[in-house]
Amino acid sequence: MSELKMDLIDNENKKQKPDADKIAFGKHYSDHMFIMDYSTDKGWYDPRIVPYEPITLDPAAMIFHYGQTVFEGLKAYRTTTDKILLFRPEQNFKRLNLSSDRLSIPAIDEELALTYLKKLIEVEKDWVPQAEGNSLYIRPFIIATEPNLSLAPSETYQFMIILSPVGSYYKEGIHPVRIHVEDEYTRAVRGGTGKAKTAGNYAAAYKAQERATKEGYSQVLWLDGVEKKYIEEVGSMNVFFKINGEIVTPELNGSILEGITRMSIIELLKDWGIPITERKISLEELYEAYDQDKLEEAFGTGTAAVISPVGELNWGDRNMVINNREIGEMSKKLYDTLTGIQTGKVEDLYNWTVEV
Ligand code: COI
């Protein structure tokens, strides 16, 4: 692979950064981005850091027609001693390659990708927010660029990384969100692309999301696409429930995203000796536990969502108010520990953070 090239803009042409208290998720972008090209004859080539600007693509580029694309999401955090930390970035590049494999996109070199990302963050270090709860969201993605309308994997691609300073994903912040159970539309089915981070999974969720938003819910909870019986995920996060002292989360089944925050929460709970089980959880079981006063907490986990307590779960005319719409003890402890490790306030016993 060729040498990393850099085309950096002058200080006076740099953008103004958003105010710390007005950062909306995904609305602001830093001054530079990373790009690397692929062609079947050259492999991945020409890695470069260039000014952030619109890119030009042929209208016949395959990404526009058949959605051959994958993405990732991770964050850079500024510690109180001004270090910049990434959280388990190697896991993101590993998952990017797994998603790529599902979409017939050529793999990238994971170690090199991390080297390029660190270089980009170094260039853009002033964009990593200082304020508590804010961070620099990192969006690596790959798109099929070959102009060709026939149905076959593209012969050319672009791998890009863009950076966006963000605050909390939900307007509720760490306050419990309201979630609507979706039982008409399906997000993903066994053998489909559910566990891959690919655009189509997210676009296919909008219809249900729109309806839920209209009714005042933050997100929808997806059920399995075959029996419409078992809980899968929320779309922007994986879900956990505390039932009668035990924490449970849906087992990975090919249609649920294999969340890195999910994996970290399971590892933390195991390390703390708290019972955690990955298994099928039916909606009926959840309502039964609720009726018997055994549903103690519910929360979602994700890079963007961090740990988001669920205060209300609605399924048609069956409504659950969980933990009095307050953040539960376990959700709070997990939130404090995870964000503490990510921002260097809590000792990283697990070697999860990587300094830039
Ligand atoms: C993330 O948590 O990074 C995600 O990919 C969720 C995103 C679709 C908002």
Describe the protein.
- This protein has helices at 62-66, 89-102, 110-123, 199-203, 206-214, 260-271, 283-291, 329-342; strands spanning 5-6, 32-39, 43-51, 69-71, 74-78, 84-87, 135-144, 156-166, 177-182, 219-222, 238-243, 246-250, 276-279, 295-302, 306-315, 318-321, 353-355.
- Strands 1, 2, 3, 4, 5, 6, 7, 8 and 17 form a nine-stranded mixed beta sheet that branches. Strands 9, 10, 11, 12, 13, 14, 15 and 16 form an eight-stranded mixed beta sheet that branches.
- It has eight helices and 17 strands.
- The longest helix has 14 residues, at 89-102.
- By secondary structure, it is of the alpha+beta class.
- Bound molecules: 2-OXO-4-methylpentanoic acid (COI).
Major pleated sheet? 9 strands, mixed
Beta-strand content: 25-35%
Say how many strands there are.
17
How would you describe the oligomerization state of the chains in this entry? single chain
Average pLDDT taken over every residue: 94
Q: Portion of residues in helices?
A: 10-25%
Radius of gyration: 21 Å
What separation lies between the terminal Cα atoms?
A: 22 Å
Which small compounds were modeled alongside the protein?
2-OXO-4-methylpentanoic acid
Q: What's the tally of helices?
A: 8
Poorly predicted sequence stretches spanning 5 or more consecutive residues: none
Give the CA-based shape: globular
Order of helices and strands: EEEHEEEHHEEEHHEEEHEHEEEHE
Structural class call reads alpha+beta
